[in-house]
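Session log. Operator J.P. requested a structure for one protein chain; no other inputs attached. Running the standard single-chain path with token output.
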Amino acid sequence: MRQMNLLGKTVCALGLGASCGAMAQEAGAPAAEPVLGTINVVSTRTPHTERETAGTVTVIDQQQIEEQLAQNIQDLVRYEPDLSVSRDATRFGANSFTIRGIGGNRVLELVDGIPASDAFTIGDFSDAGRNLIDPELVKRVEILRGSASALYGSDAIGGVVSFTTKDPQDYLNAGKPWQALGKAGYNSVDNSASETVLGTFGSQANAGLLLFNRRDGQELDNRGDNGAADSSRTKPNPQNYRDNNFLAKGVFNRQDATYRLNFSGTQGGTDTNVLSSVGSRDLSASIGFPPGFYVINTKSQDGNDAQRALRLSGEAELRNGGWYDSAVLRLYGSDSVTKQATVEARDQTIGGPATPLLIQRNFSFKQDVVGLNAALSSGFNTGFIHHLLAYGLDLKATRTSELRDGLQTNQLTGVSTKNVSPDTFPARDFPVSLTWQGGAYVQDEIAIGERLTLIPALRYDYYRLSPHDDASYQQASGDTAPVGITHNGVSPKLGLTYDIARAWTAYAQYAHGFRAPPYDNVNVGFTNLQFGYTAIPNPHLKPEKSDGVETGLRYEDGGASASASVYYSRYRDFIESFVSLGTDPNTGLLTFQSQNFSAVRIYGADLRGAYAFQSLPGFGVHAALAYTRGDNLQDHAPLNSIDPPKAVLGIDYRDPRKRWGGQFNATLVQHKSRVDDSGGAGSSGEEGGSSAALFKAPGYATFDTTAWYSITPALRLNAGVFNLTNQKYWSWSTVQGQAESDPTIDRYTSPGVNGSVALRYSF
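Structure written below.
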């Protein structure tokens, strides 16, 4: 098993070969049993089955995406108990993944091997997220838990989420030079409609694909019942969104090579009537004055948000090169832009009569990346020991810029100013930053006999940050000069798998993680003289590091499979933004700076199983359970980014004739009992929280059912009803950090009962 044809597995896993590409048993539809469902590439950068993997990897294939009617990245991990997606419930929506309590930019997201743009947020009007790919473009998602720095470098200290887009060979039937399909769907949870057209042309040797998806919808539903047009509102703010998603791909197969050209992207916008921000706020105490001196009465607030992400790559997959078995060379570039505009009408009182103001705020976050990957593998023997060597090089240059601008107009006098309290615009919260990253890695899978495999790996990373000073950064930072830094790190890993018996496999792994200090932490820069505070750069930030171990046991025999794992990770020198250093005696300003804090530990367990009944053909059951606990060892307090224990239990049926099927899932979540209310370093996965008592989300149970029916070989219907019992509940990733006394806590509730339907026709 361990020495099965590496080339064949690579071809199948990457979707390059003609035999693996012939998945369209239905006219133009993915096969009911995709080859890719049991193979992952992300764990070792070479294709392996789950049984051969020293670690926990989830593979979500196209069949699951369609049958579970996934509409966004939150839906993709709906039934993964140790994964979640953070979401802003007021305006900005889904943001980024959290894996076993570690999230944000500590998790590497890849689309066809291209890194996704970073997330960045500051204040109430600026939030650039990572929700930049639509499931309609995706044929496979691979999720690796725990540090993957030994293979993927600085950005993967928390894990990897790797998306692979659809290939033309997945749809072409033998002997037919073209294939097309149309798909339409509706989702009641946000009253959205989705339309997809896909066309492929060519042969299994050389083929192209064009895909376009349009999605239009409104605000995501919740269980709030207060529809007031003010800050007491708990119903969702009115929204309208539109997203355009596209994919163009060419695949060209030769005897010893496959070449591909990928171009994909998304462009969308959201308009929000932010009714929850309407109302009066007395800020007098914040500037040392009695009540009534400084009062803001917001009369209306409208947000217009736009995102664009473009990805272009050229790949060459070379085979049988003499000294290597396989080599994948990739040159890529990406361009991501988030622009957000906020228009607010307010009456403002500062020690006198109210003044009507019109305030316009603009935020932009832009990231451009150019990179080169070379990933090679070679198989050879030394005596009775077989080696599979994986080695490669990653080079990446990233330019990141952010800008906040604004204009305040006195509606009585018509006078405008760039001074919009507490800011003077334009302002950069960090300077334009160029980062250079380079890494080289080597991994050897050493098969000793037929049972034991050792997997040592080692990676060297180089990181350099070069900031560019300009007037906008100086304006915000109070003439503080930005600093450049250089770091390097070595990340070792050691894994092993052992076949105990025919159906049983044990595994264990140690992995070291490394993350260089990011640009927005090193050079945080803003000064507010009115409120008496400033943030300053920190050139002495140390890289974050982690050491993690995981061990597990797997069973697989015919229609039965099960796995159990336990893990422990310790993170050192975690970086926290905006740590208070006290008042600077020279300036009299309260000073903030990014700081390393001592250590975080995260440990837990993961149980999974599935069984297909032999006596009841088509019926099966599955279950997954995850428990994670996290502690900030500096403050001896819980880590608030940890999701509560969660279990998913399900039963499914698939007609042996492949005409229809369905699934029923129960999701059980325990109440969130361990919360850090102190506002210390452990109160958030990224930044310090408030010192008020925090809301502890109660436990809940939800029930979902989905079904599919092949009306004809070319026409297929998918439908689902979610939260069947209309359960009122809070997802911890959404409500985390809200005060227990918050009268608008229902604003953060998840949707009630909702339905989704999709119809696909192939021709």
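Operator note: The two ends are 39 Å apart (CA to CA).
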